[in-house]
């Protein structure tokens, strides 16, 4: 897991072959003017989901096998829980199509706010969308970067 501000994102270009393209797209795009939905940058290798939702008070940690997540907020704030995937008790039912599985575990919460991004790799479990004090509305971008292919 990586957490940092966008002023430092160039430091991470070499972490994965697709990060440079993903971060350059992020830096040049005005996400406040874009509607919610899925937007392809490099087909299924790099795409963006823009979401609006109300934060939750209860959820489970999740994980992915095929994609790395780069998550950041356009508006609002939320907590995101984190723990190594190896510390989760994995639920049955990983969804290959959605690249999404859940588990039970103890997470540490980090506040995600505007100007900060978090990167979650396949060995990272994360529990997004959590309310800071009370549920509130957020607008968020999740960049999906295919690990291989």
How would you describe the overall organization of this protein?
The chain has 149 residues and is mainly beta. The chain has one domain: Jelly Rolls, CATH 2.60.120.370. It is 7% helix and 48% strand. The chain is built from 1 helix and 12 strands; from the N terminus they run E-H-E-E-E-E-E-E-E-E-E-E-E. The strands form 3 sheets. A 6-stranded antiparallel sheet has the order 1-10-5-12-3-2, covered by helices on one side. The mean pLDDT is 96.
Main features:
Jelly Rolls; 3-stranded antiparallel beta sheet; 12 strands; 149 residues; 1 helix; mainly beta; 6-stranded antiparallel beta sheet
Blueprint (SSEs and pairs):
Elements: E1 2-5, H1 19-28, E2 37-42, E3 46-54, E4 62-63, E5 67-75, E6 77-84, E7 89-90, E8 101-104, E9 108-113, E10 116-120, E11 124-130, E12 137-146
Antiparallel strand pairs: 1-10, 2-3, 3-12, 4-8, 5-10, 5-12, 6-9, 6-11, 7-8
Chain-averaged pLDDT: 96
Order of helices and strands: EHEEEEEEEEEEE
As laid out across the biggest beta sheet, the strand order is: 1-10-5-12-3-2
Strand content: over 45%
Over the alpha carbons, how many angstroms does the gyration radius reach? 15 Å
